[in-house]
Amino acid sequence: MAEYELQQFELSRTESRGAVRRLLTEHAEYGGWELARLRRYPDGTRRVWLRRRIIRVMRTL
C-alpha cells in the first residue's frame, strides 16, 4: 500500500481563481504534490489538501 505525505493549507476568499490555480500548479510542478481534496466553504475560504507519495529507499548489500 502506498504511503503519502500530506500538506494542508487555507486560502482566503480574496484569492482569485487564477492565483489559486497558479499556486497549485507550482506545488505540483516543483514539489511533486497532487491535489487530494479542495473544499470551498460558504464564506468563500478554501481549504486545500495536497499529497505526494513517500518513496522509501531500500538498502542493498
List the helices and strands and how they pair.
Blueprint lengths: L3 E8 L5 H15 L2 E7 L5 E8 L8
Antiparallel strand pairs: 1-3, 2-3
InterPro entries: DUF5703
Protein name: DUF4177 domain-containing protein
Pfam families: DUF5703
How would you describe what is shown here?
It holds the Pfam family DUF5703. InterPro entries: DUF5703. The protein contains 1 helix and 3 strands, in the order βαββ. A 3-stranded antiparallel beta sheet has the order 1-3-2, with helices on one face. With 61 residues, the protein is α+β, with helices and mostly antiparallel strands. The protein is elongated. Strand 2 and strand 3 (46-53) form a beta hairpin. 25% of the residues lie in helices and 38% in strands.
What can be said about this structure in brief?
The chain has one helix and three strands, in the order βαββ. It has 61 residues and is of the alpha+beta class.
Unreliable segments (pLDDT under 50, ≥5 consecutive)? none
Report how far apart the termini are.
25 Å
The number of distinct structural domains comes to 1
Order of helices and strands: EHEE
Shape: elongated
Hey, roughly how much beta strand do the residues contain?
35-45%
Quick one: biggest sheet?
A: 3 strands, antiparallel
The level of helicity is 10-25%
Global Rg: 15 Å
Largest beta sheet: what is the strand line-up? 1-3-2
E-strand count: 3
User: Would you tell me the structural class of the helices and strands?
Assistant: alpha+beta
Global mean pLDDT: 92
Oligomer: single chain
Number of helices: 1
InterPro entries: DUF5703
Organism: Kribbella capetownensis
Pfam families: DUF5703
Protein name: DUF4177 domain-containing protein
